[in-house]
Amino acid sequence: MLILLTTSLIAGATLLYLCHRHQGWLMQPLSGSWRWLGWFLVAGTLALACWVYPINTAILAWMVGLMLLWGALPFVPLIRQRQQGGEHER
């Protein structure tokens, strides 16, 4: 169950990030229908987590997961660019 919750939270948060106009992964942001799917996955993850775990634990884990993902997702293109040799190495 934990793997399902983690996967759906990662997928939902990533879809929401890719729908934003300031995302750095794609040339154009995803359309609005993908945003609805992202919100559905994120909200569904919270609902399922509240059903499986105590409510306080589920809400805290959900919020921490979203903060971690939305804090780290903007840096993924920078890491990928560095691994492909886009910048000089120190």
Description:
This protein has 90 residues and is mainly α. It has one domain. 71% of the residues lie in helices and 0% in strands. The protein is built from 4 helices and no strands. The chain has helices at residues 2-18, 32-52, 55-72, 76-83. It is globular, with a radius of gyration of 15 Å.
Question: Which features would summarize this protein structure in a list?
Answer:
90 residues, 4 helices, mainly alpha, 0% strand
Q: Write the H/E string, N to C.
A: HHHH
Given helix and strand content, the structural type is: mainly alpha
Helical stretch tally: 4
Low-confidence stretches: none
Roughly what fraction of the amino acids lie in strands?
Answer: under 5%
Give the tally of β-strands: 0
Report the end-to-end length measured between terminal Cα atoms: 43 Å
- Binned, the helix content reads over 70%
Q: What number of domains?
A: 1
Mean pLDDT: 86
Q: Please give the largest β-sheet.
A: none
Shape by Cα distribution: globular
Q: Compute the gyration radius: what is it?
A: 15 Å
